[in-house]
Design goal:
about 425 residues, 4-stranded mixed sheet, alpha/beta, 7-stranded mixed sheet, single chain
Length: about 425
């Protein structure tokens, strides 16, 4: 680790939580250069929904490279892009009766968010954008204004001009409908909140602590947008691509956003991002929003192969089944350690174990790494253990990882150095 500590910028993050040099990986297992094996409940912060190195992807990439396939093309037409567009429309959009144009942006999620907000302001000729408490949308300048956590903000960056952070679903407790609160602010010309160009939200806030919006709240927000010609943008970067159980995380609510931001798992580990735009809103001039890497051809090849997972609802059913296993086990932990006053949140295969005791979640993450399980923390004070295992993880591996969490938590409660190897009858 010496080279990384000495020569890499201090901005490095995850290497501090997982201090080893990784070498190879397959599905939910990752090995370091010493040959030590780790279970991956981190999955590239939700990038590796389909696991590390899916065989069908590797085979397709090797074939593409062997045939001197185009690597860089700006936004020129290529066979790889054509195949992806066709597969995405036929496999994802058409079966869901969704009609969108695809704007390929720079290859990270924040680029997709920047494009969506920029276009919304252009179309509506309004400047204000509504984001939400605890939301995370990226750290480039426009996206940074939307991201709520003060940790990422500095006045020298330019602040949060033309962005209002409204309370997310449940922010004031279950008894307060924050969608109605927002409606009142928008419709009251003396509230100080100007009519927005767009409302942007995550249906499940990942970095914000795994906060899941209800179907009713999402429907209320959509109605509010329609009533005032506000563009509804869903940031599906971390919880799309099947993470919630359906391909898009908003499907369960029956809404149809005006724009959808996609990245992370869409490329199976290769950089790819795009914004889906309702056709009537696609009012860009040619080259008005551009970028050198707006369309990664290797990622197109990988993404096209991964879309085969959605030809049937088999993967969706497996995600829901595994999600129930995760939820039930975490709830058993809550019951087994009442003194910690923990709670469980999530949907599909993104779950959070909220541990209010200061520092305990971070300690647990370190203990789990020492016991060969990769798990990250999230939330305002890193007080939530976030579970993001690959959707394709084997059930036996999932159960092993969950038990490691139980062992680790018990070890910390008992002030033991390493997890003990018996259970409080926390069988999966």
């Amino acid at each position: 680790m010496t080279n990384f500590m000495e020569f890499e910028s201090e901005v490095k993050s995850y290497v501090r939580s997982f201090p080893t040099v990784f070498e190879r990986a397959e599905n939910a297992i990752i090995w370091d250069e010493q040959g030590d094996e780790y279970l991956d409940f981190f999955a590239g912060a939700g990038t590796l929904n389909y696991g590390h190195n899916p065989k069908l992807v590797n085979t397709a990439l090797i074939s593409y490279l062997s045939n001197q396939g185009i690597l860089h093309s700006l936004d020129k037409a290529t066979v790889a892009k054509k195949r992806f567009i066709e597969a995405f429309y036929q496999t994802i959009l058409m079966p869901r009766n969704l009609d969108y144009k695809i704007q390929f942006t720079g290859p990270t999620g924040t680029n997709a968010v920047e494009a969506a907000v920029k276009l919304a302001r252009r179309v509506t000729q309004r400047t204000n954008v509504i984001a939400f408490t605890r939301g995370y949308h990226g750290l480039t300048m426009g996206s940074l204004a939307l991201t709520a956590n003060d940790y990422y903000q500095n006045q020298s960056y330019g602040g949060r001009a033309n962005v209002y952070h409204a309370p997310y679903d449940g922010y004031f407790g279950a008894s307060v409908n924050t969608a109605e609160y927002l409606r009142q602010l928008i419709e009251d010309s003396s509230s100080g909140v100007s009519m927005p160009a767009a409302i942007i939200l995550e249906t499940i806030q990942g970095e914000g602590g795994v906060n899941a919006a209800s179907k009713e709240w999402l429907q209320d927000i959509e109605k509010l947008c329609k009533a005032h010609n506000i563009i509804l943008i869903i940031d599906d970067i971390q919880v799309g691509n099947g993470r919630s159980g359906e391909y898009f995380s908003f499907e369960f609510a029956g809404i149809k956003p005006d724009m959808i931001c996609m990245s992370k798992a869409i490329g199976g580990g290769l950089p790819l991002a795009f914004t889906l735009i309702k056709p009537e809103l696609d009012q860009w001039q040619p080259g008005e929003h551009t970028g050198t890497f707006r369309g990664n051809n290797l990622a197109f090849v990988a993404a096209t192969e991964l879309l085969k997972n959605w030809a049937t609802d088999d993967l969706s059913q497996k995600v829901h089944k595994k999600g129930c296993i995760i939820k039930e086990y975490l709830e058993q932990l809550v019951s087994a350690f009442p003194e910690l006053e923990m709670s469980v949140r999530g949907r599909g295969m993104i779950w959070g174990l909220d541990i209010p005791q200061p520092g305990l979640a971070k300690q647990l993450s370190r203990v789990l790494f020492e016991n060969n399980l990769l798990v990250e923390t999230c939330g305002k004070d890193d007080h939530v253990i976030k579970l993001l295992p690959p959707l394709t993880i084997e059930s036996a591996q999932l159960e092993v990882g969950l038990r490691k969490i139980g062992f680790g938590l018990e070890a910390l409660v008992n002030s033991e150095v390493t997890p003990i190897h018996h259970d409080r009858k926390l069988a999966v």
